[in-house]
Design a protein that fits this description.
The complex is a heterodimer of chains A (about 425) and B (about 325). Chain A is an alpha/beta fold and about 425 residues long. Chain A is built from 16 helices and 13 strands. Chain A has two domains: about 240 residues, Response regulator (Rossmann fold, 3-Layer(aba) Sandwich), CATH 3.40.50; about 130 residues, Rossmann fold (3-Layer(aba) Sandwich), CATH 3.40.50.2300. Chain B has a single domain, classed as ABC transporter involved in vitamin B12 uptake, BtuC. The longest helix of chain B has about 30 residues. The chains are: A alpha/beta (about 425), B mainly alpha (about 325). Chain A: InterPro entries: Leu-bd, Peripla_BP_I.
């Protein structure tokens, strides 16, 4: 009996110790994809994310003095595995980062019940911008409809679109189809012909049929919604078929340095809209070098660190950290929970001053979120491949959100109705 | 509608014959590449009755090894030789560690073992080489990267030198393979095992040696395929999915026939391209290549369950 009592006491003490150890961190798992056909784009993003949070942990002891546990759960970009990862991590997590439009769409209804905010910066379901309907979902600082609108604005800046033809080369996947409503509306409003050209997952590296279609259709522009191996496949085919690279524009996930490195000089002129830009001179890079790279805690390398995607990974974690900091300040506690983080993500105010204060100078444009605006609509820049790296070729571009706000509300309402009963945040005035 | 199906496509072909030639050329190049992958499957199946699920990842592994070795400063052609060495070691290891202990087990067990090999190579490859997209060392290997532009009937036909090289190398590889199988002792041993396992063993053919040999040949084919595909769009684990393109080729041509793999690959490459361009894109919104080959293979299987060139199995009880 004595022995049993000792055991019981030991178990209780161990439980308390373990419990306090768990409580002393903010568990922010990342549904990463470092393997599979999309790994080439995933790795630099995941490294950027992990290194920024590791830097905060090493330099500041985390966010507000509480370390962030950014454990990765590998999905291989598979929707099924992504959902498994969500289920596995949801009990402890204060946020879920699904990293795929397919996974985002699957976990979207679940987060209403589990009350965990989804953080999907620059991806996911575009009507998530309507925070009143999608109270748990955030895609700040920009959504796909922002990207589509900015690309069309940029093309229009080169001449009237009326009578022109725009091919829309996209992955045949929820991600690839996401901007179609905005592009179709723009085609109707501006009088250009939109030619959607899908690329199957198994055809990503052999797009000769798609580029034969482009040759036959003779579009004035090719807008690309590519991801992973599709980007390199499309760009090499564009070079091969002698399509003028300056008339090919990709979404931000189609602007990966390693994809363009395959064609090198031949890819000169290729463009990609982006809400982030790498800045090797930004103070945050020196801090990451000092606290993470030099300490041997990173998986990155010099070439990757100077690329667009690593920098974007940093910004994504910075947005999460800002959401956490905002919630900590508001609720007066370091150890915030998921519901408090939701409030924090709704109250991010990334002014130019704050961006510089965080050492992210020039890496992202100012934006703010609110109860009704979960996207932030930071806008971005048009980047161009100069044969060795991406450079900015535009001033700061802003999406014309008003042109599709009504569409977003309608799609959000449609989604809510299709998934009824769908909880709407009635307290949210916008 | 009927006009769109039966008249318009052919009118389009005749009105732009240069474009039709381009479609046929692209189909031929794809077909050659499909045939190469299918050959790897057929060789292993013929000699061991194993459907090698790992053929796709072997393509990735071979290409990554080549690029990885070169990144250490080893000259390109020496890297090729070393990569062949690695593929040989892989073949020996697979025979010794995976296949030998499973001799006599049902086919499904051996098939499952190749899934295990796939998962191992994915993990091992990612640990060693990382998952980033890498640039194939085409220039260092002397693979031409320019193009020849022709103007048939006043039109435009672009022939990539890379594609022309792939076709020539693939033809040479297949020719060499056929010569090896038909005119050498080891080649005849492989064929004998394919024809009748027990009879081949009874005349002293070593199962272990033949298995190592066929897996090594599959490794050589994987390396050539990896270089060809990698030169087109980089080397990454995404290359693995191209192995799935070989499945309808095998269904169409027959799992045991080298001729079937070659003709099946070419047929599917050309027909799926023609269908996609003249019927799929105008009438079905495109992306028919993901299913066309499977439908074609299924239709063939309805009439010839053994495939176009597969051996008809007659079992007497």
């Amino acid at each position: 009996m004595k022995h049993f009592t000792k055991l019981a006491i030991a178990a209780v003490v161990a439980g308390i110790t373990a419990g306090s150890a768990i409580a002393q961190e903010l568990y922010a798992p990342n549904l990463a994809y470092r393997t599979g056909p999309f790994a080439a784009t995933g790795i630099p993003l995941m490294n950027g994310q992990a290194d920024y949070l590791a830097m905060l942990n090493a330099r500041d002891g985390g966010v507000g003095g509480v370390p962030v546990n950014a454990e990765e759960c590998e999905t291989g970009y598979s929707t099924e595995k992504g959902v498994e990862c969500y289920e596995k991590t949801k009990d402890r997590s204060i946020v879920t980062q699904p990293w795929s439009t397919g996974i985002t769409l699957q976990v979207l209804p679940k987060t209403n019940i589990d009350m965990i905010p989804i953080l999907a910066p620059g991806y996911g379901f575009s009507p998530m911008m309507d925070g009143k309907t999608f109270q748990w979902a955030f895609n700040a600082p920009a959504g796909y409809w922002d990207a589509a609108d900015m690309i069309i604005q940029f093309i229009e800046g080169q001449g009237d679109l009326n009578g022109k033809k725009v091919a829309f080369l996209h992955l045949d996947h929820p991600f690839g189809k996401e901007p179609l409503p905005v592009l179709e509306a723009a085609a109707e409003a501006k009088g250009f012909e939109l030619v959607p050209i899908p690329v199957g997952l198994k055809e990503m590296q052999n797009q000769s049929a798609q580029w034969l279609q482009i040759r036959r259709e003779r579009p004035d522009y090719v807008v690309m919604w590519g991801w992973g191996a599709m980007n390199a496949g499309a760009i090499t085919e564009a070079v091969k078929t002698k399509f003028p690279m300056e008339n090919m524009i990709g979404v931000w996930w189609s602007g990966h340095d390693a994809d363009l490195a395959i064609v090198g000089d031949k890819g000169k002129g290729y463009k990609s809209i982006s809400w982030s830009f790498p800045n090797a001179d930004a103070p945050v890079m020196a801090d990451i070098q000092k606290h993470v790279i030099d300490a041997g805690k990173s998986q990155t390398n010099d070439a990757e660190m100077s690329g667009v995607f690593y920098g974007r990974g940093i910004i994504i974690s910075a947005i999460l950290a800002e959401g956490i900091a905002s919630a900590q300040a508001h609720f007066g506690t370091g150890e915030i929970n998921a519901e408090q983080l939701r409030w924090g993500l709704e109250n991010i105010n990334m002014t130019e001053e704050r961006i510089n204060e965080l050492g992210l100078n020039g890496m992202v444009a100012p934006f703010s979120t609110s109860c009704g605006n979960h996207t932030g609509h930071s806008g971005g820049w048009m980047l161009e491949w100069d044969g060795a790296k991406f450079v900015k070729v535009s001033d700061h571009l802003m999406p014309n959100v008003d042109s599709y706000a009504e569409l977003a509300n309608a799609k959000a309402a449609e989604y809510a109705e299709a998934n009824a009963p769908w909880p709407v945040n009635e307290d949210c005035g916008g | 509608m009927l006009k769109d199906i039966f008249v318009t496509p052919f009118a389009d072909m005749f009105s732009a014959p240069d474009f039709l030639l381009q479609v046929l050329w692209e189909g031929l190049v794809s077909g050659v590449l499909y045939a190469l992958i299918a050959l790897g499957f057929v060789l292993i199946f013929r000699s061991s009755r194993i459907f090698n699920f790992a053929q796709g990842i072997m393509v990735v592994f071979a290409a990554l090894t080549l690029v990885g070795l070169h990144s250490f400063g080893i000259p390109a052609w020496i890297s090729v030789v070393l990569t062949l060495g690695v593929m040989f070691v892989l073949a020996v290891s697979i025979e010794r560690v995976v296949l030998r202990p499973l001799v006599g087990q049902p086919d499904i067990i051996l098939f499952m073992a190749t899934i295990g090999i796939t998962l191992f190579l994915i993990g091992f490859g990612e640990i060693i080489f990382g998952g980033e997209n890498k640039v194939m060392i085409s220039e260092e290997l002397g693979i031409p990267t320019g193009d020849t532009v022709l103007e048939p009937w006043g039109g435009l036909l672009i022939l990539q030198h890379l594609d022309m090289t792939v076709v020539v190398v693939a033809v040479a590889l297949v020719g060499g393979l056929l010569a090896f199988l038909n005119y050498t002792q080891m080649g005849r041993a492989i064929r004998a095992l394919g024809d009748d396992h027990q009879a081949a063993l009874s005349v002293g053919i070593s199962l272990q040696t033949v298995w190592v040999l066929v897996w090594f040949i599959a490794g050589i084919i994987a390396l050539v395929t990896g270089i060809a595909w990698g030169a087109r769009a980089g080397v990454s684990f995404a290359l693995e999915v191209i192995a799935y393109k070989a499945l309808p080729v095998l269904m169409l041509g027959g799992l045991e026939s080298i001729t079937g793999a070659i003709i099946g690959g070419l047929l599917i490459g050309i027909l799926e391209k023609l269908f996609e361009i003249y019927w799929g894109q105008p009438l079905l919104g495109g992306n028919t290549e993901t299913w066309f080959a499977f439908v074609l293979a299924l239709i063939v299987l309805l009439f010839r369950p053994q495939g176009l060139f597969g051996e008809r199995i007659i079992e007497r009880v």
